[in-house]
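Q: Could you fold this chain for me?
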Amino acid sequence: MGKQRHSDKSESVNAAISDCARAIHLTCELTTEGCPVALLRSTLDSAAILLREYDHLAGLIAQQQKVLQSLTNLTPRQHEIMDLVLLGSPSKNIAADLHISQRTVENHRAAIMKKTGSKSLPALGRVGLVAALSDAETIAA
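A: Sure. Below is the predicted structure, expressed as structure tokens.
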């Protein structure tokens, strides 16, 4: 689903750039003295803004794909523990709920942080948010 949306956005940006190029070309044909400098600058500025937005969106999509890929490397138990951590449960409570030792939970948490590249719980929360948004997009489609 993420690739489809990226493709749609790429086509929209490319269409807008083509429209700008056509506007410059038509304006140059319609005037005997060539393109007015102000129109040309304005059109080029608009094209530059579109390209920056496209680059920004492409970067966000790449980050989202990287996060989703990191989640595929987690074991089912790590997914379970990550969900409980993101709900705010302390390791001691997770251990009691899952009938495992607190040290095992801490080892799983460390592996989750390493596999997802998260350096803090807020960073792990962002990973969880990306996953939840991706799941919501999949369900909505």
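A (continued): The chain is about 85% helix and 0% strand.
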